[in-house]
Amino acid sequence: MNTKQSRIRRARKTRAKIAAVKAIRLAIHRTNSHIYAQIISADGGTVMASASSNDKDLRGQLANGGTTAAAAAVGKRLAEKAKGLGIEKVAFDRAGFKFHGRVKALAEAAREGGLAF
Question: Does 3-112 carry CATH code 3.30.420.100?
Fold first, then answer.
């Protein structure tokens, strides 16, 4: 089993637990160049809010989209959008990535912005 398959296996287990609780989830995806985050409805069918380091407004502010500073900016932006929609509690879906570095920076910024998980 290679690294990607292991990550996908971990993600599948996490998503199954979140689906069983029927919680709104904050899903992330990390690449070398950018980080993406979405708030997905409890049924898993609708993206309610999204933010990424590749968005036009953030791209101008960031020198590089693959840094912890970029991840923190994405987390803060997503928390603002969620507050606008009245979402305060979510389940954090780290998509099998380690809770370290950019993933942790995004999560902490989202918490500071008012999201609870």
Answer: yes
Q: Whole-structure pTM over 0.85, yes or no?
A: yes
Dist. CA 57–CA 89, nearest whole Å = 26
Please name the helix (run of DSSP H) or strand (run of DSSP E) that holds residue 44, with its range, or none: none
The residues, ordered by sequence, that sit 6+ positions from 113 with a Cβ below 8 Å of its Cβ are 75, 76, 78, 79, 80, 82, 83
**Alpha-helix residue ranges (DSSP H) falling in 1-117:** 3-21, 56-61, 68-85, 102-112
Structure tokens at 2: 């290679």
- Quote the DSSP letter at residue 65: T
Domain boundaries of the chain, sorted by first residue: 3-112
**Spacing of C-alpha 82 from chain mean position:** 12
**How many helices (DSSP H) and strands (DSSP E) are in the chain?**
4, 4
Contacts of 54 (CB under 8 A, 6+ apart): 34, 36, 65
Residue type, 69: A
| pLDDT single digits (tens) 12-47 | 999 999 999 999 999 999 999 999 999 999 998 899
How far, in Å, CA of 47 to CA of 45, rounded? 7
